[in-house]
Amino acid sequence: MTWKEIAATVKSAAMSGMWPNIRAFYEDGIFILNDRDNWKMNYATVILDLQSATVSEDTTTFNVLLWYIDRQKEDRSDINNILSDAIMTLGEIANWLRYHLDGVFVTTDMVATPFQDRFADECAGASLSVNLATYHNKLC
After folding, report:
1. 132 near 98, Cβ under 8 Å?
2. pTM for the complete prediction?
3. Residue 27 maps to which CATH number?
4. Which range of residues forms the domain containing residue 111?
5. d(CA 19, CA 100)
6. Count of domains in the chain?
């Protein structure tokens, strides 16, 4: 699979209702969250953020950060709920990636990193680092 195919497949699954607390899915990179004037975010959202691609003779490995982001209340009373939802949802997405992307395999353990008080909208959530590898289509 190409990166474009992987991203489209993950987006389709995320928006299908498989993970009901996800209201939006973006592949535009995380930095858009800091642009309060030009962006209206629907929370909770997942962002698929391609960090790098390593190309070898037989495979391409995509290093990806998956972000689960939700807006926290001003008094921060919902932080534990958001962090719990974020880690649970990212774990479910991780398992889905591991077992449902044909021709793609996860090459490392995945680590979720929680955060709070981030971005222009004062959000909380977690990011998940994952390496997805796919074999090259060879024409012989």
Report:
1. no
2. 0.85
3. 3.30.2000.20
4. 3-135
5. 15
6. 1
